[in-house]
User: What shape does this take?
Amino acid sequence: MKNIDIIDILTNGKDYEGKSVVVAGWARTARDSKTMAFVALNDGTSLKHLQIVIDKAKFDGAELSKCLKNGASLLVNGTVVPAMNQGDYEINAESIELLGDCPQDYPLQKKYHSLEFLRTIPHLRVRTNTFNAMLRVRSKLSFAIHRFFQENGYTYIHTPIITGSDCEGAGEIFHVTTHGCASAKLSKDEAEYMATDFFKRKAGLTVSGQLEGEVAAMAMGKIYTFGPTFRAENSNTPRHAAEFWQVEPEVAFAKLPDIINIAESMIKYIIKAVLDECPEEIAFFEKAFESGLRAKLTAVVESEFKVLDYTEAIEILKKSGEKFVYPVEWGLDLQSEHERYITEKVFNKPVFVINYPKHIKSFYMKQNDDGKTVAATDLLVPGVGEIIGCSEREADYDKLKQAMVDRNMNLDDYVGYMDLRKYGSVPHSGFGLGLERIMMYVTGISNIRDVQLYARTTGDLM
Ligand code: 4AD
Ligand code: MG
Assistant: This one.
């Protein structure tokens, strides 16, 4: 490999001035005039393209014209020179090798393509500015998440992808089986089906690494998981994906206010990292997707998040005079429209809603003394709604067991989890941040399908 990264030339152009270099990439656009031609070359290391200036007199016309096509891959040898724009650099081409031709049916011929159209060509949409910027922000964000936890003494745990439990109890499990359709039909009941299946019991893709994360936290104290989670959620919304990434810290000895502080610190840390490390990408998203994006993110880093009791949230919604589609009543879950009203219209900043009614939340959440609510919180942000689901965990064996019995759960599937409350139980708390949700918030991209390399949603597996 002889080529140097385009980002290197764009940022350290002065060091290369007058020198001969080799660069490689894909022609994003090509312009041809009588004596000169120009190629905007991108190798994925930066959002910005490197301009290749071609003096046509130096090249064979027929050979050159093959290189002047959108999408063609090129290896260019040339001299680095200052560009017209102060501080920018470009390449005066000496030779160009066509690595891969790109015929006219290449779908990315226009400057602008709708995100809907791009979803039909997931293998090519990565070659647009939007996906170039999105993937770099996603990478920086992920690394910042690791940094935050590593710098604060957490151990990174890899929890299993295949599990026998349903952490959220919502029945949104993708089943894991080695049986084909035929054996399903031949089995007379579930027991017979399982008896010859791989695990000899029900198995599924994890909806959350939390239950196993708690196991690790009961020995390692402060842990986090960061990996893919899966939900067969049939809701065709812009915020739900069947496969998404979750960051899930679990902290021994932490109570609800402690974990809220940790979540707030983490969100600020990772947003600041993106602001610092991806200024060009944020400027791009600001122009293309959400005006005022940088100011919004900067304000989040500097603000204090609101903490609001669920009961108070219901009162605010009732008094709002808004016409909501879904009813507002104490005991009902907050719908997206309610969440957004609270965080966008009332507070215009991130809001932790705390102390939800226990019957709308999961079995593992710590029951408050009032007998009605749990020490849980969702973090809501403007534009997206819920990005974090969080709670203190029920550390009392009997209370946990009762909550599971009340939900008709099969206790045999959770013996190990319940044992944690039997052997040296401690107060502990954790949360799950949806990576795609925070990506939507940070980029202003409003559909979850456009913040993943491949979107997995109901009826869609490209
Ligand atoms: O609120 P959830 O369901 O909480 C849990 O799974 C807990 N076990 C987490 C924990 O305490 N360790 O999901 C957590 C977050 C949500 O706030 C949301 O950001 C994201 O995961 N999420 C989804 N993101 C995309 N598509 C979906 N279908 C999602 N479901 C949840
Ligand atoms: Mg939730």
In short: The longest strand covers residues 20-32. The chain is about 35% helix and 25% strand.
